[in-house]
Amino acid sequence: MTKPPELLPATRRALLHRIAVAQSDGRAPSLVAAVAREGELVWTGSRTSVDGHGPDENVQYRIGSITKTFTAVLVLRLRDEGLLDLGDPLEKHLPGTGAGEVTIAELLAHTAGLAAETPGVWWERSPATLRPTLADVLGEQPFRHPVGRRHHYSNPGYTLLGSLVEKVRGVSWEEALRGEILEPLGLSRTSVHPQAPHAGGWAVHPYADVMLPEPSEDLGLMAPAGQLWSTARDLAAFAAFLVTGDDRVLSADSAQEMRTPAAPTLPGDWEASYGLGMQVLRRGGRTLAGHTGSLPGFVAGLWLSEEDGLVAVTLVNCTSGVPVATVAADLLAIVAEAEPRIPAPWRPLHEVDASVLELAGPWYWGTQIVALRVTAETGVELGPVAGGGRRSRFRSNSDGTWTGLDGYYAGEVLQAVRRQDGSVSHLDLGSFVFTREPYGADAPVPGGVDPEGWRGLS
After folding, report:
1. The pLDDT of residue 453
2. For the segment 28-83, what is each residue's pLDDT rounded down to a tens digit?
3. Radius of gyration (Cα) for the chain, nearest Å?
4. Are 181 and 187 in contact (CB under 8 A)?
5. Strand residues in 184-241 grouped as ranges (E)
6. For the whole prediction, is pTM greater than 0.85?
7. Over the stretch 128-185, which tens digit does the pLDDT of each residue have?
8. 44 C-beta neighbours (distance < 10 Å), count
9. Quick one: pLDDT at residue 350?
């Protein structure tokens, strides 16, 4: 892959201005940010309240719930290896939790109905020794909503997923994380415990320009929900992996599955949803996927845009004040709009099967006209000739059929039905019949075609 060009000076200044405003208005001790394009870091910047001590892209910050995305990758790996199914109830692999009826997919998407937090004292600011077992994490009444009915963010849910990884793998969550994600992807500055150089966590008084150090607790069983420390550089590389996949860790298809909405739209926000360990939202006409995170003393935001080939990360060492999700999204938008992605040159197919080529062109579903296109980029597409409507890409199967990859026809089978002489009669797609003419006299349309044919109003 060709290394992306350096950003223009005007773009770099706009990025610096955005984080400078965020750090100043948010009254943050320090802020570090990064933007990557096509998997390569193209910009980093920081602002700090201490002269001469500005952090760079290799300084660790606590990333809070961005940890959940790492945990989700570990679970998807188990699925891809055939060790579990996302539809399995938790009880099948991790018995005795008291929440065994929920499925693994429901835990990943926060639709299991579990409580948002643990019972007892504020777990993020108290010793993990107060919660030595899963029973302590879940409490006597772990559910707040019917299972599978709504999205309700749950930190204990990801504790269960971390324990699931440990049970199935037979190693600790930390060991699985290090061996299966961090080392293969070269994320050497991401760790369960802080490694110098790292930022300290602070609380900034809401009505006075004074600060208070925040405690840094080991989260124990809750670690899979929010323990990790990382850097802007490492998180940019991790997000780039979430766009393209890496067969050493997780396939591109499984990474895309993580970015696909799997939960109902969040209440009050029709533009936001949740996938499998990833937040998904529409902002400024583009789809963003990623995660935010917070722990006492730290907030973090990470977004990626597959369409733009961009990733943006923002890390801050204060408990509140900086809208990191907005800042990261703004950084991504600044680059996308000032220096839009240059599309790859159009190139023709190297070769094409004549039996596929004869299917190209217009088809009719009843009176609705659609076009089948044979492209070098996607193979076969079926969609409206112009305007909106159902549109799907298809991959070829060994038996001469195609399976839908996205849109309305995802998972549905498309096949060309031929007459005895080998000519094409029609297309069959999930029981729908597509013909070359709208309701032609000999069209094999269910219910038949009126023998008198088309007519005017007499």
Report:
1. 86
2. 999 999 999 999 999 999 999 988 778 999 999 999 999 999 999 999 999 999 99
3. 26
4. yes
5. 202-204, 211-213, 229-230
6. yes
7. 999 999 999 999 999 999 999 999 999 999 999 999 999 999 999 999 999 999 999 9
8. 20
9. 87
Has residue 441 got a pLDDT over 90? Answer: no
Which residues lie across from 374 on neighbouring strands?
A: 380
CB 21 within 8 A of CB 15: no
Beta bridge partners of 204: 211
Q: Which pairing describes strands 61-62 and 229-230: parallel, antiparallel, or unpaired?
A: antiparallel
Apex 114 CA angle, 110 and 119, nearest 5: 130
Rounded Cα gap, residues 136 and 123, in angstroms:
11
The answer to whether 184 and 248 have CB atoms below 8 angstroms apart is: yes
Which structure tokens are listed for 333?
């938008």
How many other C-beta atoms are found inside a 10 Å radius of the C-beta of residue 415? 14
Please check whether residue 353 is in contact with residue 380, taking contact to mean a CB–CB distance below 8 angstroms.
no
In angstroms, the CA 143 to CA 112 distance is 8
Query: What number of other Cβ atoms are within 10 A of residue 37's Cβ?
Result: 23
Strand order in the sheet with 310-316: 40-48, 30-37, 310-316, 298-305, 286-295, 279-283, 272-274
Share of the chain above pLDDT 90, in %: 84
The position carrying tokens 């992306």 is: 4
Give the whole-angstrom CA distance, residue 69 versus residue 67.
5
| C-alpha to C-alpha distance for 285 and 282, rounded to whole angstroms | 6
Q: Is the pLDDT of residue 377 over 80?
A: no
């961090």: which residue's tokens? Answer: 182
Q: CA distances (Å), 110 to each of 75, 96, 264, 269, 335, in order?
A: 14, 20, 10, 16, 32
- Antiparallel, parallel or unpaired: β 413-418 and 402-404: antiparallel
Which contiguous run of DSSP H or E holds residue 31? strand 30-37
Give the Cα-Cα-Cα angle 252, 257, 262 (nearest 5 degrees).
170
Do β-strands 310-316 and 361-365 pair in parallel, antiparallel, or remain unpaired? unpaired
Please report which helix (H) or strand (E) contains residue 18, including its range.
helix 9-26
SS3 2: coil
Per-residue model confidence (pLDDT) at position 231: 98
d(C-alpha 314, C-alpha 19), whole Å: 9
The mean predicted confidence, pLDDT, of the chain is 94
